[in-house]
What we know:
The protein is an alpha+beta fold. The chain contains 13 helices and 27 strands. Helices cover about 20% and strands about 25% of the residues.
Amino acid sequence: MKVPASWLIEHLDVDEEVTAQDLADAFVRIGIEVDDVRKLEPVTGPLVVGRVAEIEELTEFKKPVRFCRVDVGESDDAEADKPDENLDDDEDDDEGPFEDDGPAGIRTRGIICGATNFAEGDLVVVALPGTVLPGGFEIGSRKTYGRLSDGMICSARELGIGDDHSGILVLPPSTASPGEDANKLLGLEDTVLEVTPTPDRGYTLSVRGLARELSNALDVAFGDPASIEVPEAESDAWPVRLEDTEGCKRFVLRRVKNLDATAPTPWWMRRRLMLAGIRSISLAVDVTNYVMLELGHPLHAFATGSVKGDLVVRKAKPGEKLTTLDDVERTLDVDDVIIADDSGVISLAGTMGGASTEITPESTDVLLEAAHWDPSSISRTARRHKLFSEAAKRFERYTDPQLCAVAVEFAARLLRQYGEGSILPGRTDEGGVEPNQPVTMPISMPDQVAGVRYERGVTVKRLSQIGCKVNVGTSEDGTALVTAVPPSWRGDLVQPADLVE
């Protein structure tokens, strides 16, 4: 899992002097493998926010080429950097006159761009001549395609903040103004940690879980992002039948209507998703991915208008098929847990949703789903279909059943805040999960196993720090005992040896 250090630190009461390397060292001490500590490469020179004022499609070339006039916040009387008029034309430049006229009344820079995923009025990131991008790529003015390109409009990959190179980075409206320094906006001073938790600690596939572990390792206060109030609900969000209660212990739904389908994902969220290696798609989809990374509980969003009748959680029937979101038609196994409606199977539970109820750019009514799926069942399904999604990766390692209602509430509030959606009062909450059973051990057992005598109270303190409810007592023979009730996210603590570890 990739996570920006700034995101982890947001939930920790640490001094400003604490570095990303300090966090990495703390992870190693508590048994969480750190694969990489990557500081974002610096960008030197004039990297600014620009607004695309005008686009001219140059149709005489074999590939898409645009000549853009970009407002980079220069005043009308400002002198743009004068290009070297003796520069040779690019080798793929056709013979033609040099043109550099901009729209009247706006001081702009002319820039050639091969991407087509942006429009006039969009905010973009512009590297002006003199900028040096990650990898030592220096930007200058040059003649190409019969025009003077006076800078470069950048993609996320070129800026070193993501892997997407399919188009340039388009910022949400009102994020910034033309001419503003883009370095601070992009957060290029950050560091990304890549960690690989052990299979029995699935809760650490989240910012919440990792930050909690760091709070214990560094002995600092932890601010829990899951500490939100979940209101009482008097009705269901949508009718649901749980037929496979072994495969699904709990199933929660929350509905959001009147969502602005054109609302952009806020920049701070998009940035975090990019640094975590997840491509931004749309506000509704981005919110579900963000909540998964933040809390560790995967969500699925159904386009409510495409759901036909009651939802049913059951095992697949012989011969049933489902076209998943990756446009692959899959023949289901009778061991697969699925979600169905009156039309048939609409989701491969805990692994990937179906194309028939996919969120589209026109979706304004969304049904948010969070469930507690049986880890073994999800693991078998993922391997059977060779579908190792981010959701399956977490569900097969055990997710916190108490987070289901919190996760959908968190997502619904984000959609209301940034997409102006209306959260309907009902919430479906079917099934339930028994609390973890208490585990009792001699209070001296950690000393005996480690061969080290711990100070009085250390065992109780450490168990309390990982979320256990701890009681100390005495057995009939006088042995001091400690009884710990593991927290809901620690399904791996089932015997004394687990507590010692």
